[in-house]
Q: What sequence folds into this?
């Protein structure tokens, strides 16, 4: 690893020399977290997103992880989904399934994908209902502070504009405080209709991993991570602060190239 360290503000950065190194570290991190969480509470509830981070999770279906992880304890959710059929090239479900999920022996019924045959409004409300039932039966934990579900891990990518899940800059859903899952019909990035976890749910997670790579995201990474002033206050990635959990950034050297003071990590 090129650099690794905790910043005073409760976030940890891991900066990698290569995508290969990053994806191995990510798989080790997920595997360790899965082991300790399943020992502690019998299940591991992880929500994933779409985009470039999915291929970086591909190591999970390879040795040693395929054999060493206790997949029976896993429940997989989507932090966001695009309103397209599950076999559409834009589907976050399809991307994860084709890349690695289909090669892993999950318990049938533990892949909690978002219904693609409903309107986005209906799909968001049905998904929230599914999550509520799993909180009630204690498969998913509950935050004592926010009353939201407490996922064991939410893995997010970040767009060039700083969006995370389907929470886009300056969009009114950034102010959503009562729903756990909501929808948009005017996404600036196609497709326009999407379903997404809200900020309170993401910030109630025990662990949030933000996985960002490539030089085209270096400016936004600098804006979000370094204290550059009020101009970045409307950037969704900047709003990720787990209330009672940990925030870990997985970056490659290119994405981290404009960060201030990385020399303080070693
Ligand atoms: O549209 C989306 O974009 C973000 C970021 O994608 P990337 O390809 O730039 O990494 C992704 O995290 C989100 O889940 C997805 O719906």
A:
């Amino acid at each position: 690893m090129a650099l690794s360290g905790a910043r005073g503000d409760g976030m940890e950065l891991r900066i990698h020399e290569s995508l290969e190194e990053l994806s191995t570290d990510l798989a080790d991190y997920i595997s360790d977290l899965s082991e300790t969480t399943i020992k502690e509470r019998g299940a591991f509830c992880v929500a994933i997103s779409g985009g470039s981070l999915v291929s970086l999770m591909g190591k999970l279906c390879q040795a040693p992880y395929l054999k060493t992880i206790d997949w029976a304890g896993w429940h997989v959710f989507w932090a966001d989904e695009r309103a397209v059929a599950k076999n559409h090239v834009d589907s976050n479900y399809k991307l994860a399934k084709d890349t690695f999920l289909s090669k892993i022996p999950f318990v049938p019924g533990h892949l909690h994908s978002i219904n693609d045959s409903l309107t986005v409004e209906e799909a968001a409300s049905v998904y929230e209902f599914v999550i509520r039932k799993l909180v009630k039966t204690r498969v998913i934990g509950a935050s004592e502070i926010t009353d939201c579900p407490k996922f064991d891990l939410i893995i997010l990518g970040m767009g060039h504009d700083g969006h995370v899940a389907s929470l886009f800059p300056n969009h009114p859903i950034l102010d959503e405080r009562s729903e756990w899952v909501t929808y948009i019909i005017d996404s600036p990035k196609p497709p326009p209709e999407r379903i997404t976890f809200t900020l309170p749910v993401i910030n109630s997670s025990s662990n949030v991993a933000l996985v960002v790579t490539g030089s085209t995201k270096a400016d936004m990474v600098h804006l979000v991570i370094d204290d550059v002033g009020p101009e970045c206050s409307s950037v969704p990635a900047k709003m990720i602060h787990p209330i009672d959990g940990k925030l870990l950034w997985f970056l490659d050297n290119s994405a981290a190239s404009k960060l201030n003071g990385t020399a303080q990590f070693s």
The helical segments are 19-41, 53-56, 65-68, 92-99, 120-136, 199-202, 218-225. The mean pLDDT is 95.
